[in-house]
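Sequence decides. Our protein:
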Amino acid sequence: MAGLLEGKKGIIFGALDDQSIAWKVALKAKAEGADFLLTNVPVALRMGKIQDLAEQCNTEVVPADATNLEDLNGLFDKAAERYGKVDFILHSIGMSPNVRKGKAYTDLNYDWMQKSLDISAISFHKVMQVAYQRDMVNSMGSILGLSYIAAQRSFPGYGDMAQAKAMLESIARSFGYYWGAKNGVRVNTISQSPTMTTAGSGVSGFDAFFDFADKLSPLGNADAESCADFCLAMFSDYTRKITMQNLFHDGGFSSVGMTESFIESLGESSES
């Protein structure tokens, strides 16, 4: 039986190590018949193990800074040489200097905030704009970005990444219209549970985020493996009419106000 993504070609941004969602997407996409290029910034290539992933997936790594249009054009040159056009793109990129350096939200460095927005959100627009202007995505293709519910709710410690994720989701909606009208390409974001990745663990209080969401979610937190499965479904032809959506993949957390077990745990805390 043919794989879910048999014959599909793509580009996967952001794989760093075997904890990252993009890494797991790559392995699963390969197992389902896809061929793709891997890409990340040069410093991540030195720090991570992406070359190991490339060997496992029988592909190559193209160093590219997603905030740099020259780099992106070079990446799409390589994709054009190898595939002509692609069928899917995964944007799994996010970084905030303010969060990384522990700056309080009430004392942000605005130059760093601009960098947060450029890396984590505007890069999504840049990737799509280069692909759009070069007509690099096949009809009915799929473009995904990874988000988090802090785009809609306040989470202390998540800092200016909340604004970055809100912008990311807005870009998906706005550019999704143009891609859909052009040739039926879908653009969506997946709002993922707190996930034990190298990037996620860099957020102050991440363990508390993780435990809180896990306790409140009827299905528990969605892990990186589950998110990768969802990404593959979104790349497949089974989701060809879903676009311009922010899709919550969080075990139900986004729809829960309170649970009985959580209320009971609060009662036990007050009694002790």
Q: What stands out?
A: Residues 9-271 form a domain with the Rossmann fold fold (CATH 3.40.50.720). Strands lie at 9-13, 35-40, 61-63, 86-91, 137-147, 186-192, 246-249. The radius of gyration is 19 Å.
